[in-house]
Amino acid sequence: MPEFVLRPSLRHRPLVLPAILIVALCVVVGARFGWPGVLVGLAVAAVAIVVPLTGYLRRARIVVTPSQIAVRGLVTHKRADRDQAASIVRAVIVAPRAPKNDTIFVLDRDEKLLLRIHGIDYPTADLDRLVEVLGLPATTADRPVTAPELAQRYPGLVPWIQRHPVMFALAATLVIVVVVIPVAVTITLTIIG
């Protein structure tokens, strides 16, 4: 079997809002220094958007060879031996204020997670071809599911942070209140005093 490679497509990613926020922030900060500042702000915004996006598009891919399955992102690279792969679970995961994420979980013989493939940047037809190329028994959720629903049916597939987003947000807020604010107050009092 020849190497099978999938590359992401940005047509599926809602990048407009973050891009607008980055541009607006850079322009507002730059506007404090007049027209030259606005131009510098636009240049910084262009670099802040174009460089990571170009890096992601050049590096990100899913590669299936006769011996392994590899998933590469901008900074991550996960791989598994094809011999260990025994089955696939495919589900469209929905979360509040987030786009639907067609996700493929590759499992071993003990139904433990080998790889998680986020399909948000890939067309559905490409993910269908990926499942076909892998040639493993596949279970597909009959409807979009939440992370807790998927975790209930397949324990260990979904990380804690995704199953409990509210508890994670509360824990992060607690850390900010307990650690960051006292440190900021201490530094402020040190500078003033």
UniProtKB/TrEMBL annotation:
Superkingdom of the source species: Bacteria
Q: Which UniProt keywords apply?
A: Membrane, Transmembrane, Transmembrane helix
Q: Which organism is it from?
A: Jiangella alkaliphila
According to UniProt, the name of this protein is: PH domain-containing protein
Spans traversing the lipid bilayer: 15-33, 39-57, 166-192
* Lineage, top ranks: Bacteria, Bacillati, Actinomycetota, Actinomycetes, Jiangellales
